[in-house]
Design a protein that fits this description.
The protein is mostly helical and 128 residues long. It is 40% helix and 9% strand. It is built from 4 helices and 4 strands; from the N terminus they run E-E-H-H-H-E-E-H. The strands form 2 sheets. The protein has a two-stranded antiparallel sheet with strand order 1-2. The relative contact order is 0.07. The mean pLDDT is 88.
Amino acid sequence: MIDKRPEDGRAFKCTFCYDRQKAGLVPACAKACPTQSIQFGDLEELKQRGKDRVQELQGRGYRDARLYDPQETSVGGIHAFFVILGEPEAYNLPPAPQVPTVHLKSAWTSALISAAVLFAIICAAFAL
């Protein structure tokens, strides 16, 4: 959650209640969530809970229930995953998120090839 301080207008991002975690407590949002939709803990345990919940929902007739955790993309998982009904786009989530730097190698390769071709053209122009 983003918090804005009224005194000076600065905004601060959620720290997962680092001070509470140091004291052995869960973040305040997870503790206060009345529906237990926000959970905090070991990732593997939470993933298993999510998978179990998807199976439960599918057993109750919600065939489009799924766990949104894009492991197969360049982000390799998002460390916050969601049990959703339907497509991710309905929740304003990207269907296949990508890390922008995944394209850097091809971009630099193209730039290097372009520079080499330009250098060759300039050398050829001076040689004539």
